[in-house]
């Protein structure tokens, strides 16, 4: 059996927690409990009790919403139990008895806890209330698990789970009970070292707890999964789960949860030989652990303090803690703790050279381990496999019988089956091929449509007409040199657009040359007012970087006609190519135009509205091209403002993968 993750340690400089102090704490706790039991029940609580018994709520949640502040007070719960029994309100009696049972369980008085939970179960049966029957069965399972009675615990938790799942539309209370059952069964599998099965149970429970929004349940499940991972030796993963559990416990302000999680985290540090970090966590946790009053936790802490001190070679102090933990484990019948205490004492005496003592404690540890392991194995083989997997085995036998019958049938009709199978496979292959070809043709058609749309957007009649008209003006004005210069540029641009339209991708250098030609032509219409600049960062080789063809022109056109055409004064467009990381280059196009909001207002006021479809086509092309790349293309459009929220223009950023 693996040691529960309740490890605790203190600094080498901290004085020993002497035994006198410990027994003073026990005496003080007992005296406090006695005083609590002797106190008077307030008149207000008596009125609450009368009202609840008259109203007779039937769910745990209804009762707990009223009684929660007093459910840990044994005096009040005994009073509520007696009044409920006297007036035959068995549901209330079951609630009170279960709370009393939890109180005794948490101070490791397991015999009293069992007696109270059994009475609570009987009261739930008398009330014919499924929710409280399931709750009581689960509580009994938890108590028996704490005392290492694996078979009995499993019986109770399995019965609780089967009862809860028999309800077609379970209440939230029953759903919580299902989670408790799954969690408890997971803990039992963990004790049996069936860690993967245990984790599966905890994850089922966790999914249901998320549905209910129960943060306490999530904290418990994260803690339990962490323990399983720790037992498997996956320490870093376990540490992640412990920290998540601690976050939930801090959120719900659970003192006990915090103590357990911090000890678990410290335990990982001890196993990783990070003793200083472990001690930093555990030192302030000492008083918090004592105030809980749970003897199993305190026993484990004492044993683990001894273990930690032993690793620090503080043998005298280590022995005192180990002996204290051993005595407490014996007193409260904690077999696994007893075995671990013996084991550490044996190791301690070996370090000190006291080999006779070391041998004696080693033999006692082995005896306890053998008893625990043989008992666990016997129960696991005879009970878990036989009882809880009977249905699975029966199903397997039935499946084998059906398979045998089917095999005989196959032998008799082997020839026909082979022929039918071959024809079926051929038909299926043909159908799959047809579907594949249809998909390919659809993709090819989509690409062709996009290419045609792209070409139309690049070579739209307005652009061609206006460009030729601008060149014509040079001719009319007898500016032959300019006319020839721009006519050459125009023809070169048309040729490059036509060439690029047939290619899936081109070099960055070709794309930049194309847009330079485009901007030269368009600038004629703007009376050369556009200041267009291009900057390519040094590490980028324009000739080796490949990008989809003709993707920049629609963004430049948009900047010209929507951003700058309505702007007075200086007009700028800056194109910047940079290396974003190993897998991406970034192309940004920044204009100092009127901004998108102003552009929309201007557009709405015009009688003839210019509709830009080039950008939408480009985005579709990018999405289609990205299928062939490991990473996806992305386009960002950013509105630029100054500190007074005045528009400064627009920035388009293209994130283009290079492989």
Automatic annotation (TrEMBL):
This protein's name: Tetratricopeptide repeat protein
Keyword Methyltransferase: no
Keyword DNA damage: no
Organism of derivation: Arenibacter echinorum
PANTHER family from the UniProt entry: SENSOR HISTIDINE KINASE YPDA (PTHR34220)
Record field: transmembrane: 418-436
Domain of life: Bacteria
SMART domains membership: TPR
Record key words, sorted: Membrane, TPR repeat, Transmembrane, Transmembrane helix
Domain Signal transduction histidine kinase internal region: 451-529
GO cellular component: membrane
GO molecular function, one term: phosphorelay sensor kinase activity
TPR repeat residue numbers: 94-127, 179-212, 219-252, 339-372
């Amino acid at each position: 059996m693996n040691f529960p993750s309740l490890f605790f340690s203190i600094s080498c400089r901290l004085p020993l927690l002497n035994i006198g102090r410990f027994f003073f704490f026990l005496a003080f706790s007992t005296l406090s409990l006695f005083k609590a039991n002797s106190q008077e029940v307030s008149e207000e609580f008596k009125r609450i009790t009368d009202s609840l018994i008259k109203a007779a709520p039937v769910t745990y949640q209804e009762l707990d919403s009223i009684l929660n502040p007093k459910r840990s007070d044994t005096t009040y719960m005994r009073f509520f139990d007696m009044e409920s029994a006297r007036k035959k309100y068995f549901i209330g009696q079951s609630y009170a008895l279960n709370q009393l049972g939890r109180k005794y369980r948490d101070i490791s008085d397991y015999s009293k806890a069992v007696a109270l939970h059994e009475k609570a179960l009987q009261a739930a049966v008398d009330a014919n209330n499924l929710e409280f029957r399931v709750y009581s069965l689960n509580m009994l399972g938890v108590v028996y698990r704490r005392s290492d009675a694996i078979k009995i615990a499993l019986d109770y938790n399995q019965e609780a789970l089967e009862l809860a799942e028999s309800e077609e539309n379970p209440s939230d209370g029953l759903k919580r009970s299902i989670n408790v059952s799954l969690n408890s069964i997971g803990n039992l599998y963990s004790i049996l070292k069936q860690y993967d099965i245990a984790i599966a149970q905890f994850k089922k429970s966790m999914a249901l707890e998320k549905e209910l929004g129960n943060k306490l349940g999530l904290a418990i499940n994260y803690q339990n999964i962490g323990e399983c991972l720790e037992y498997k030796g996956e320490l870093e993963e376990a540490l992640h789960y412990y920290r998540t559990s601690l976050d939930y416990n801090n959120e719900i302000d659970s003192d006990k949860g915090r103590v357990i999680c911090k000890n678990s985290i410290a335990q990982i540090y001890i196993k990783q030989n990070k003793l200083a970090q472990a001690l930093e966590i555990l030192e302030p946790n000492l008083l918090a652990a004592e105030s809980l009053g749970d003897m199993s936790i305190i026993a484990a802490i004492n044993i683990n303090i001894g273990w930690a001190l032993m690793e620090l070679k503080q043998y005298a102090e280590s022995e005192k803690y180990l002996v204290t933990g051993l005595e407490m484990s014996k007193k409260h019948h904690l077999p696994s703790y007893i075995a671990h205490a013996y084991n550490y004492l044996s190791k301690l005496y070996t370090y000190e050279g006291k080999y006779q003592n070391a041998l004696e404690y080693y033999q006692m540890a082995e005896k306890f381990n053998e008893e625990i392991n043989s008992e666990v194995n016997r129960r696991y083989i005879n009970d878990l496999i036989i009882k809880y997997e009977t249905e699975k085995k029966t199903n397997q036998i039935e499946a084998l019988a059906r398979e045998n019958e089917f095999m005989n049938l196959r032998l008799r009709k082997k020839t026909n089956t082979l022929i039918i199978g071959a024809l079926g496979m051929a038909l299926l292959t043909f159908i799959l091929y047809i579907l594949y070809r249809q998909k390919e043709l659809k993709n090819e058609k989509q690409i062709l449509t996009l290419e045609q749309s792209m070409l139309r957007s690049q070579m739209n009649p307005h652009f061609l007409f206006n460009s030729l008209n601008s060149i014509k003006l040079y001719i009319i004005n007898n500016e032959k040199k300019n006319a020839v210069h721009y006519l050459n540029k125009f023809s070169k641009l048309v040729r490059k657009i036509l060439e690029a339209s047939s290619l899936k991708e081109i070099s960055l250098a070709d794309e930049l040359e194309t847009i330079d030609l485009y901007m030269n032509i368009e600038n004629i219409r703007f009376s050369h007012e556009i200041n267009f600049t291009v900057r390519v960062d040094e590490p980028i080789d324009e000739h080796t970087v490949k990008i989809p063809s003709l993707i920049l022109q629609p963004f430049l056109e948009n900047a010209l006609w929507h951003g700058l055409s309505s702007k007075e004064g200086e007009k700028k467009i800056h194109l910047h190519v940079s290396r974003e990381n190993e897998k991406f280059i970034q192309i940004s196009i920044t204009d100092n135009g009127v901004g998108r909001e102003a552009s929309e207002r201007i557009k709405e006021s015009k009688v003839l509205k210019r509709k830009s479809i080039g950008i939408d086509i480009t985005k579709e092309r990018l999405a289609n091209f990205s299928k062939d790349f490991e990473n996806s293309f992305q386009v960002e459009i950013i509105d630029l403002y100054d500190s007074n929220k005045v528009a400064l223009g627009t920035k388009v950023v293209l994130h283009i993968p290079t492989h």
